[in-house]
Amino acid sequence: MNLDIREPLEENLGVLETAALLRELTAGLIAVTDFDEALTRLVRVARDAVPGVTWCGFTTLRAGEPAGVAGSEPRLAELDDLRHGPDTPAMSAIRRREMVLSADLAAEDRWPAWTRRARALGVHGVVAAPVDVDDHVIGAVNLYADRPHVLTARRQLTAMLLAEHAGLLLAAVRDRARQSARTGESDAALLTEGVVGQAIGVIMTQRGCPAPEALEVLRSAASSLDIPLREVAERLVATVSRPRES
């Protein structure tokens, strides 16, 4: 009896491809704190990891800010921005909150101006999937093909999983950026605050290091001794201020 194993094999390969994509995307964004850098990494990973995709772009809408874009290919960046108005795959996906597909732009009539420009740039298929980042940022990841009918149903599923995973990772990037900003503000205050500032000055003098490095030395000591930072600073200042015995 002959069994056709091609379909199960293709499905397994699709699962492995998607798992590899999500793993690579996570590795690329796990420690990033700059949102724009995260978008740049995302589009490059998606371009290289999703079979059938030649280019990738990302359209971003942030509350109170102009729309932003990131693209794996600079010459195609205009396809992701708003110069074509609201009639684009990305904006359709964002407005409708669902994935938008055109497997062959030669037969597409939903976005006339955008489609003419896309075909002139060598784009023949597109999938746009909405991405929810947080209450202030939404967007769409846009996958482009240089041939018609290569963005199959399996590629649509990959795009959907990519968008959902990207939303979680980008939300984490924004959280890290906010935390980094708060830490920076806290550091700036500590550098000039009373006894902590004095202790930092002592360490700078002793080690010949800049203030941020001295603050990290102080924090490391507080962590090792399991006592508050201020107490470590007080001990250090008291030690260097103690009169020496003759």
UniProtKB/TrEMBL annotation:
Q: Which UniProt keywords apply?
A: Transcription, Transcription regulation
Which PROSITE patterns does this one have?
ANTAR
Q: Which GO terms describe its molecular function?
A: RNA binding
Where in the numbering of this chain does the ANTAR domain appear? 176-237
Where, if anywhere, are coiled coils annotated? none
Chaperone is among the record's keywords? no
One Pfam assignment: ANTAR
Q: Which domain of life is it from?
A: Bacteria
Q: Tell me the protein's name.
A: Antitermination regulator
At the highest ranks, the source species' classification is: Bacteria, Bacillati, Actinomycetota, Actinomycetes, Micromonosporales
